[in-house]
Every structure is written in structure tokens, then in C-alpha cells.
Amino acid sequence: MTETTARPGQRGSAETALADLPLREDLRDEHSYGAPQLQVPVVLNVNENPYPVAPQIVADIAAAVAEAAVGLNRYPDREFLGLRADLAAFLRTESGAELAPEQVWAANGSNEVMLHVLQAFGGPGRTALSFAPTYSMYPEYARDTLTTWVTGRREHDFTIDVDHAREQIRRHRPSVVLLTSPNNPTGTALPTSTIEAVLDEARGAVVVVDEAYGEFRRTGTPSALELLPRYGNLAVSRTMSKAFSLAGARVGYLAASTAFVDALRIVRLPYHLSAVTQATARAALKHSATLLSTVDELRTRRDETVEWLRGKGFDVAESDANFVLFGRFEDRHAVWQGLLDRGVLIRETGPDGWLRVTIGSADEMQQFRTALQEVVGKQ
Asked: Are the C-beta atoms of 222 and 94 separated by less than 8 Å?
């Protein structure tokens, strides 16, 4: 048997426990974020688009990446104004927003965009405010930037009461207010009047409206992008992960005033957006109409799922997203496990007693319905 001898002062990795390392004390009992990644036939737990990118678009992306690869010995374009201009053009088509490239920011997923916001406007002695239930990563952004995290409440239908929102802003005097529309995990969209009321009350803060699922909103549901010309402290966050079927590309972006974007440029890491990521996103944006062609189908299937669940006696939240929150269960984990045992993975999240299902293909949703009826019938 051969013995392995560690160098002086070095311990084998198998012998090192987390407690041996000088981890920040506020992180001692924390765990890394992540939904279960399980190999099952029907994966409906992380709000991905069920449809892969079409072969011709894959070929165009591959060609763009190959072209970028020729120059990988050089750092990427630090300001990536070409990509920012392309994103501005997309928002002009999608929402009618008139934006200069300098009013758009992008990063490795909307998660990094939001982290930039908290790095720039949060920090020790500052507070970030949102309204629960909402996206579970927000308190982690606050924690990682040493920002105090507070939440107001949402109503029983998961809307936000304007008077309550105003009271929370006066009480906590946040530097950052995070509004999610459509909200995750509930799917609830906010009316423009609610966003305006928050903006008017939070004049000393920045307000970010997270529209990660904005492309899935129902006809007549406005985007907060229309408010940008009136509010210099407003930012609207989007992503290419959902409607664009590009979750694996990790491209998120934000639209705001030039001053707001300049603040994010201060805290970003050097060359944070790789040449490969920029090439992928720009190639995909040339095919935005094709990539988003499945959105109407998913909207229709979402509405059908809401109707079917209600017809079976479940409580179902109104949804403008590509997922549906439903309940209520005395033991939601048992229902989640029962579905998983039948090869269907959904998300155990949101208020106690509720579950969330992503809208998948027609076949996937049929398998979900069949499995759910079997599980509930047995209970």
C-alpha cells in the first residue's frame, strides 16, 4: 500500500471540516441555494421553458461562439455596448420602451444583476425591503452584501396593499425596494398604480421591479418599463432564461436610467460578461421572434392548468408567469414526494400548504395531472 504524505502545514481535504475554516459567523448555519436536480421523466420545478432551442438557431449561436473563440486570448468587451443595444432593441419591440444602450445592463443571469444592485445600493447600515412571499434568493443577496433584510406582507390573494407598502417604507426607510411582477412563487402581477405608489413613497430609495417572467404576462398586463421615463430611481430586471429557452446561457439584464446603470458599473467585477456569453446572447436576440414563439402556447396551457386545478377543488393563485401555485395541502411534502415517486418533479415552495408547478409540454402536463390525481386519491 502506498502512503500519501501531506506537506508540512497542509491537511488533506477529507480531514478539513467547514468548522475548521474562518467562515463568516452569519454564514455558519446557512446552506447553498438550489432546487433539487433529479433525473426524472418530468421536470417541472425550476420554471424552465420546456422547448429546446431550434437547430438552426443552435447553429447560428455555435457560429457566433466560434467567431468569438478566435479572440479568446483577449479580454472581452468590458462595456458590451453591442449586446446592450440589442437588448434595448428587443425591449422596444416587446414593450415599446425607448432606451439607449447606456440604459441597459447585463450580467450572468438576473441573479448577478440583482447582486450588483445590492452591492451598489445596499450594504452595512442599509435595508432592503420586499413583500413576502416572494423570490427566495432576495434575502441571500441581502445577506451576502451585509444588507438588512425586511419583508412586508402580501394579501391573501398575494397582491400588495398600497397603504401597507407605504407604511413599511416609512417604518424601515429602505435603500432598496424589490417588487416582483409576476411574483415568484405566486405568479401575481402588480398593477401600475401599486408600483407608482411605491415609487412615490420611496423617493430616497431605488426600486427594482423584477420581471423575470414578464414575457408570459397576460394581455393587458403592463410592464413597469413604461414608468422608466418618469422615475430615475426605477430599474426593471429581465432574463433570457425563461421565455428565450436560454437558462443554460445565464444572461440577465436590467433597464434603468443611465445614472442607475453607472452605479452598477462601479461594483461589477472586471470583464464579468465573457465573450462567449455576449456572442450567445446576441445571436439569440437575432431570433427573438422564433425563440418567443412558444410563449402564447405556454400561456394558454397555464390558463388551462389553472382551470383544471380549480375544477378539481384546489386553491390556485392567479398567474401571469409560466408556473402555477396551488394548494392547499395538510402535508404538502407528502404530495410532492408522491408526485416524485411517479416521475414528476415539481417545487415545494411558497406559503405552507402550497406547491408550484412549472408549465411544461402538453405531454408533461398530462403526466402531472394523472400523477396528482393518483396521489390525492390515495390520501
From this structure: no
Q: How does residue 186 score in pLDDT terms, banded at 50, 70 and 90?
A: very high
Q: How far is CA 135 from each of CA 43, 105, 150, 226, rounded to the nearest angstrom?
A: 20, 21, 13, 23
Kindly tell me the burial class for residue 303, based on how many C-beta atoms sit within 10 Å of its own C-beta (0-12, 13-18, 19 or more): middle
For cell 435595508, the residue is 127
pLDDT tens track for 255-267: 999 999 999 999 9
334-351 pLDDT tens trace: 999 999 999 999 999 999
Where does residue 152 rank: exposed (0-12), middle (13-18), buried (19+ CB within 10 A)?
A: buried
Backbone angles phi, psi at 361, to 5 degrees: -70, 170
Asked if the model's pLDDT at residue 379 lies above 70, the reply is no
> String of b and e for 333-349 (b: at least 16 CB within 10 Å)?
eebbebbbebebbbbbb
Where in the chain does DSSP place strands (E)? 42-43, 104-107, 127-132, 148-153, 176-180, 206-210, 234-239, 252-256, 315-316, 323-327, 344-345, 354-358
Q: How many CB atoms lie within 10 A of CB 139?
A: 17
Strand bridging mode 234-239 / 206-210? parallel
Buried b (16+ CB within 10 A) or exposed e, 23-54: eeeeeeeeeeeeeeeeeeebbbbbbbbbeebe
At residue 271, φ and ψ (nearest 5 deg) are: 55, 45
- Residue pair 257/103 in contact (Cβ under 8 Å)? The answer is yes
Phi/psi region, residue 72 (left: phi>0; alpha: psi -120 to 50; beta: rest), is alpha
C-alpha cell, 243: 421565455
Asked if residues 198 and 227 have their Cβ atoms less than 8 Å apart, the reply is no
Residue 22 corresponds to which cell in the numbers above? 474562518
- Rounded Cα gap, residues 181 and 195, in angstroms: 10
Q: What percent of the chain has pLDDT over 90?
A: 92
